[in-house]
C-alpha cells in the first residue's frame, strides 16, 4: 500500500545515504514537481541544496516575486535571477513557435549554467522529473523538460555533466501532490494549473515584445482572478489568456478603435494528452470580457476558444 508518509521517510533516508555531504543544484519553476523535489531534498541535505529560480519575464503577472517569496518562506536556500532582458532580446523578431521555444531553452541553459557555476564544489543536479516524464519524451512542465529537449543544442553545458538526482522519478502527478501536501507545501503551489516552460511566449502568437507581455499579463491576471473568485479555478485543469496578433475595429465613446484581441482558453483534462473545452458559465465569461476590455489598454475584443484536443491543442503555438 502506497502512502505519502512512507514514501517521504524512505526517500529522505535514501537521499541522505546517496548524497552524504554533497551539494546539489536544482532549478525551481514555481510548479508542483520542482517544488516537491526541492522540499524533499532540503529535508535530506538542508543548505547543501542550492535552488535557482530564473525570471524569464514570461511568467504570469507578479508570479516571480510571489513564488520567490514563498520559497524563501519555506526555508529553501534559493537564488532568484532576473534574466528578463536576456530572454526578451533573444526572442526579438522570432515568429516561429519552435524557434521561440529553442531560443528560450538556449537562454535558460546559459543562465542556469552561469548560476550553477557560482555554487562551488557542486556534484549533483536535482530534477523534479516524474514518472510520466520518464516514459514520454516530452514532459509537460518545468525546467527539467526544457533542459532535456535542448541539451543537444551545441556542446553540453557543465551542469549537464553533473550526476542527476530525481527523487520523484517513480511518482504520478496525483502522488506528487499528495506528497507535497504531506510535506506541508502551500495549496497555492500544489493546486497551480500546469504552465508551459516557454510561458507566455507561446501564448503571444508571433513575435514577443515587452509591451505584448505586459498586456497579456494584465488580461491573464483578470481572467485567472475571476476564475478564482467564481470558485472555478480548481475545477478547471488549465486556463490562460492568449494574445492574438489580430486587430479589429471597435468603438469607445465617439471614437473608433483598432486594437488587438484576447482569447480565453480553459480546458478539462486528465493528463493534457486530450482535453475538452470548459463550459464556463456565461455570467463569468461576461464579467471577464467586460473587465479585460475596460481595463486592458490595447484590447477591444475578447473571444472564447471552444476547440477540444484533438484536433486542436491546448496551447495555440
Ligand atoms: P498542447 O498545446 O500540446 O499542450 O496540447 C499540452 C500540455 O503541454 C503544455 N505545453 C508545454 N509545456 N513546454 C512545456 O513545458 C512546452 O513547450 C509546452 N507546450 C505545451 C501545455 O501547457 C499543456 O499543459
Automatic annotation (TrEMBL):
ATP binds at residues 29-35. Keywords: ATP-binding, Glutamine amidotransferase, GMP biosynthesis, Ligase, Nucleotide-binding, Purine biosynthesis. It catalyses: XMP + L-glutamine + ATP + H2O = GMP + L-glutamate + AMP + diphosphate + 2 H(+). It is an enzyme of class 6 (ligase). GO terms for molecular function: GMP synthase (glutamine-hydrolyzing) activity. It comes from the Bacteria. Pathway: Purine metabolism; GMP biosynthesis; GMP from XMP (L-Gln route): step 1/1. Its EC number is 6.3.5.2. Residues 2-192 form the GMPS ATP-PPase domain. Catalyzes the synthesis of GMP from XMP. Homodimer. This is GMP synthase [glutamine-hydrolyzing]. It comes from Pedobacter lithocola.
Amino acid at each position: 500500500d502506497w502512502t505519502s508518509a512512507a514514501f517521504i521517510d524512505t526517500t529522505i533516508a535514501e537521499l541522505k545515504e546517496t548524497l552524504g555531504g554533497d551539494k546539489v543544484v536544482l532549478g525551481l519553476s514555481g510548479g508542483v514537481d520542482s517544488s516537491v523535489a526541492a522540499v524533499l531534498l532540503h529535508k535530506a541535505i538542508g543548505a547543501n541544496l542550492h535552488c535557482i529560480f530564473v525570471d524569464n519575464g514570461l511568467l504570469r503577472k507578479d508570479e516571480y516575486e510571489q513564488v520567490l517569496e514563498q520559497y524563501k518562506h519555506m526555508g529553501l536556500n534559493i537564488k532568484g535571477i532576473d534574466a528578463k532582458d536576456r530572454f526578451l532580446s533573444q526572442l526579438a523578431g522570432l515568429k516561429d513557435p519552435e524557434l521561440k521555444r529553442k531560443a528560450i531553452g538556449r537562454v535558460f541553459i546559459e543562465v542556469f549554467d552561469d548560476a550553477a557555476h557560482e555554487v562551488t564544489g557542486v556534484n549533483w543536479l536535482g530534477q523534479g522529473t516524474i514518472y510520466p516524464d520518464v516514459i514520454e519524451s516530452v514532459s509537460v512542465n518545468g525546467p527539467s523538460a526544457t533542459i532535456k529537449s535542448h541539451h543537444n543544442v551545441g556542446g553540453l553545458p557543465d551542469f549537464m555533466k553533473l550526476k542527476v538526482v530525481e527523487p520523484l522519478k517513480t511518482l504520478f502527478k496525483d502522488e506528487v501532490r499528495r506528497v507535497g501536501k504531506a510535506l506541508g507545501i502551500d495549496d497555492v503551489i500544489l493546486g497551480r494549473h500546469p504552465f508551459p516552460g516557454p510561458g507566455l511566449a507561446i501564448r503571444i502568437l508571433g513575435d514577443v515584445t515587452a509591451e505584448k507581455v505586459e498586456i497579456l499579463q494584465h488580461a491573464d491576471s483578470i481572467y485567472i482572478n475571476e476564475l478564482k473568485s467564481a470558485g472555478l479555478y480548481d475545477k478547471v485543469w488549465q486556463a490562460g489568456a492568449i494574445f492574438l496578433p489580430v486587430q479589429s475595429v471597435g468603438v469607445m465613446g465617439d471614437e473608433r478603435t483598432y486594437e488587438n484581441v484576447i482569447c480565453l482558453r480553459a480546458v478539462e483534462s486528465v493528463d493534457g494528452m486530450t482535453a475538452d473545452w470548459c463550459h464556463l458559465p456565461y455570467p463569468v465569461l461576461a464579467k471577464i470580457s467586460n473587465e479585460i476590455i475596460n481595463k486592458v489598454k490595447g484590447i477591444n475584443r475578447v473571444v472564447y476558444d471552444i476547440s477540444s484536443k484533438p484536433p486542436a491543442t491546448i496551447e495555440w503555438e
